[in-house]
Predict the structure.
Amino acid sequence: MPDGLDGLTEKEKETLRLLVTGHDAKSIARELGLSVHTINDRLRDTRRKIGVTSSREAARILAQAEDTGPNKFGAKKMGVSDTTVDAHSSEQPARNKWSGVIPAWLGGGMLVLSVVVAVAVFMSSVGMSPDSENGTSMTKIEVSEAASIIFGEQWLKLVDNQNWSKSWSSAGSFFRSQISEKTWSATILSVRNPLGTLVSRSILKVTKATSLPGAPDGEYELIEFQSNFTNKSDAIETLVLMKEENTWKTVGYFIR
């Protein structure tokens, strides 16, 4: 591990891992049940130990050392702005058509995993019209017309049972190319555990798409569930599945 990383505590590494998946200081504090001040102090310590002035740069360095790689999260590809984490960071927000929109939505959710398709899920969730510039076309369909539901529900059972390794290996090849098994397991654990046990889950809607921003063209179905957990009611889970040969594979999972 590069110089400086050996001196990081596990709590500091946990904070950086959340940062590289799209969280900011406020949402990290919410996820970990800590104050924003504590998170900013923790990020300041990581910058000092690694010898950088940017918290996101510290997160990227850790990601590279753990063989996850910052680019595998697809933030640049989907247009998520690289926003300033706290007042001590020297980074400036990226400016593009999604700047301020996607980060605000991410901050209001529990987590975004396989974030390369987050734009598509956001567009579907708020009912935005197809984006001709990105070639994105989405159509709401009846639940009875969806072909991916049984595959999606089987995959969700793996997550419900905390079988992180199996959920990663059975996900789509695109999903696995964006996030390593180690990072997936660490990230999903930090999100699902605080929710508690699943109480109920029902399908709200299904949307079809043939292209998504930052993702390869293909046949997609986005399933939105209303889910109740012992520690959180009325959660919204969104599952993105892509058809691979004769089956459907998960390529995105979101909780808010």
User: Anything to note?
Assistant: The longest helix spans residues 36-50. The chain is about 40% helix and 20% strand. Confidence is low (pLDDT under 50) at residues 68-135. Strands lie at 111-113, 138-141, 198-209, 220-229, 232-244, 247-255.
